[in-house]
Amino acid sequence: MKLIKKIAPFALAAPLVLTGCGGNNDTKKDEGTANKDTAKSGTVKLIYARGKDTTNATKKIVEEFNKKHPNIQVEFREMPSDSGKQHDAYVTALNAQSSEIDVMDLDVVWPAEFAQAGYVLPLDNFIQKDNVDMAKYNKGAVAAASFNGKQWAMPKFIDAGMLYYRKDLVPDGKVPKTWDELIATAKATKGQGGTKFGYLMQAKQYEGLVCNAVEFIAAYGGKVIDENGNVAVNSPEAIKGIKKLVEVAKSDFVPDNNNTFTEIESHTAFLEGQGVMIRNWPYMWSMVQDQAQSKVVDKVGVAPLPAGDKGSAATLGGWMSAINKYSKHKQEAWEFVKFMNGAEGQKISAIEGGLAPTLTDLFNDQDILKKNPFFKEQGFVNALSAAVPRPVTPIYPKVSEIMQINLSKAIAGQMTAEQAAAEMEKQLKDALKK
Ligand code: GLC
């Protein structure tokens, strides 16, 4: 119950999105420019940027859109898969007012910053004009893409961390329910069935480490920043969570070079059959079940992440699509954003990419459920609805950097969990001027 409350800031922000629709002068001005820019004849070429897609989904979405819109041709521009590196590439381009990229996907933690910096276009007028019903979208995801009462991006998919396990090595009745059980299971099963690792996670110094850490901290009842925006990371609960993270990340059942592992390294090892369990996002399911890239087809089960003293906690992740404010083809860019984040595009994302839709009706779509059977499981639905957001602030990259550095030092044994929490508190307070 406690964890569910954590999503409240998002849920509360939702009405602002609706009242903010339309009628804003800045928005009209931006979209006015768009009309002039696009009043040309001939085919318009759009560049759509997002991180590396290890599935077929992006290719298929682009193909479908291009087929249906002969006058608009979208080209996919692959960006670094590391969320932080991707962020920096966009910020560099947008700071220089580059119009090269028209549409880009934003990580759930960026909209406040991108909105405040004026990098992306408010979408409210487009949404209104085309009668896009935002009430059909997951509330938290809509709210995460809104800032100052405007909608800056369309929610594409929601992520929540989850536990994948080898059914042949961890029988259903024995799936770990607590982090201590996970540690015991990982120790006991490592090496079985040709595996090398009991557990795989994301422990490199990058955004994924923050996501893993937020899960441990919340599972033990801690918070990084509380509902009132106050830094809360130096609490006994948060310290307990950090200690457990360190215990797992330094154990002998994770890879020796665990501190170089992102989603890619961890899923590669798991698909190769090297891991008994792994923490990852929903996207990995479609890869697990793909003969062409997986040695563990039909051998894998999915469960909520293990619990700490307070319960199981999954970090809220996800991506949303935004339009570059300097795009020369804003109307066409919107057409693509609308398609990709509408029912048709999200269905492709869910079927080809295993991504959890933000259009809530799609959780009843039989084709989607057939491909992603766990979408209908209560554990997954609960994990999505109770997912713990990372701090919401326009200086999120700074907050993340502070966490990444201190957590990495704790994992490397350069400081204790207590010291890491105290350092994070000091630096976060300073950064947030709290
Ligand atoms: C996933 C999540 C995103 C998160 C990233 C970290 O892509 O959707 O929110 O920041 O992983 O690696």
Number of domains: 2
Which outline best applies?
globular
Measured as a percent range, the helix fraction is: 40-55%
- Tally of individual helices: 19
Counted beta strands: 12
The CATH topology of the largest domain: D-Maltodextrin-Binding Protein, domain 2
Structural class: alpha/beta
Strand order of the largest sheet: 2-1-3-11-6-12
Largest sheet: 6 strands, mixed
| Share in β-strands | 5-15%
CATH architecture of the largest domain: 3-Layer(aba) Sandwich
Cα Rg: 21 Å
> Which ligands occur here?
alpha-D-glucopyranose
CATH superfamily of the largest domain: Periplasmic binding protein-like II
- What is the distance, rounded to the nearest whole angstrom, between the alpha carbons of the first and last residues? 28 Å
On the 0 to 100 scale, the average pLDDT is: 91
Q: Give unreliable regions as ranges.
A: 1-40
**CATH class descriptor of the largest domain:** Alpha Beta
